[in-house]
Amino acid sequence: MDKHNISVGLDIGTTKIVAMIGRKNEYGKVEILGVGKSKSLGVHRGVVNNITQTIQSIQQAVQEAEAAASEKIEEVTVGIAGQHIRSLQHSDYITRSNSEVVIEDSDIDRLINQVHKLVMLPGEEIIHVLPQEFKVDGQAEIKEPIGMYGGRLEANFHVVVGQVSSIRNIGRCVKSSGLQLEGITLEPLASANAVLSQEEKEAGVALIDIGGGTTDLAVFKDGIIRHTAVIPFGGNVITEDIKEGCSIIEKQAELLKIKFGSAWPGENKDNEIVSIPGLRGREPKEITLKNLSKIIHARVVEIIEQVYVEIKNYGHEEQKKKLIGGIVLTGGGSQLKHLKQLVEYITGMDTRIGYPNEHLAGDSDEDIASPLYATAVGLVMDGLKRQERKVAEEQEIENELETPEVTEAEPEVVPEQPKERRSFLDKLTERVKDFLDNAE
């Protein structure tokens, strides 16, 4: 099969590692060929803390996916999240030497490169620079300044920052698993691509991805990403609380949460009881569902309130920045019973559960369209997009090489297609690759 058409997403999470192989079908939808899943052992709150175990988990997931798709995996698109990710707003400007010439891509690149010179905390690096809106000679609210005249070009940027060492560690794990790094993407962005529709991004929407170790937030408005945040709590702290509160082992706590857990304590009767076998001949424990949901409720409220603070930081309460699309919940943690109602109650915003079926082919397996796999599907889509860009660039170079001799004819005016700007992540991927090559 043509390697160009398939892409592999690798979601290195705190609870599980997923390798997913996908390709575009003739309708432009994403068809998933194989999925591999393994328990993630060396990751804590989205950050690798045991390289050897993480490599083993990655290899296990990759082998499973290869067997399911009967494809060999060589390159992967990897997601980064974790508690070290933070974001900030920044505005910057450049003065152009000649305002008689229209603004080009190179001006915007110069402005973006200038933002990269921002001084960060030690060990931090800029991962993403996302232009919000531009100003040309003081005229505000310009979405696309290319082709305009102007002497001073300024823009507001959404800057995402992360720790270099954490990103390099992920690169290291991927490389040591015998894989090539094709691209790096911010996980909240990947999940957003998989579960949100363009209309929602236009209207304004907050995507909350509740994973095992972290909860990721991405806020969109007018089709542009406006705010990102990673909150270092996820489904695992809920399990931890159940374990402590009921004095049971983790495996039982996880099962209780999934089978009987609810985020809304009001609906359980006082007499609903679950009996849990005791350890090694001890008496079984009896736990009331009411207590169980009280424990879950307390922690979930805490997580949602933290996320809501971030949504308010973005400015949701200002009329112009209102998120009409409300909230979309995804990730494994979004499957908790009555979570949607609780989120609506706390935030007063419309809420729905996000399934990554927006861009999947119609005959996809139902399991894949689960919120659990939102990030993995988003990474596959990202990889496919990257490949299309690569193919287009190669095509362009070939065309330039094949240009025939020009005959004296009327020159044809072809409107210039806007070129997709190379994202900083591509540059970051290259830097991580270089670092790993030199470090060997």
The tally of strands reads 18
Strand percent estimate = 25-35%
> Main sheet, how many strands, which sense, barrel?
5 strands, mixed
Distance between the termini: 32 Å
Any idea of the CATH class of the domain at 197-354?
Answer: Alpha Beta
Biggest sheet: strands side by side, in what order?
A: 3-2-1-6-11
Alpha-beta content class: alpha+beta
Q: Which labels suit this protein?
A:
36% helix; Nucleotidyltransferase, domain 5; 440 residues; alpha+beta; five-stranded mixed beta sheet; single chain
Question: How is this structure best described in words?
Answer:
The protein is an alpha+beta fold and 440 residues long. The chain has a domain at 197-354: ATPase, nucleotide binding domain (Nucleotidyltransferase, domain 5, 2-Layer Sandwich). Helices cover 36% and strands 27% of the residues. It is built from 11 helices and 18 strands. Helix 4 (187-195) packs across helix 10. The longest helix is centred in the last third of the chain and has 28 residues, at 374-401. The chain is globular and about 85 Å long. Mean pLDDT is 88; it is low at 410-419.
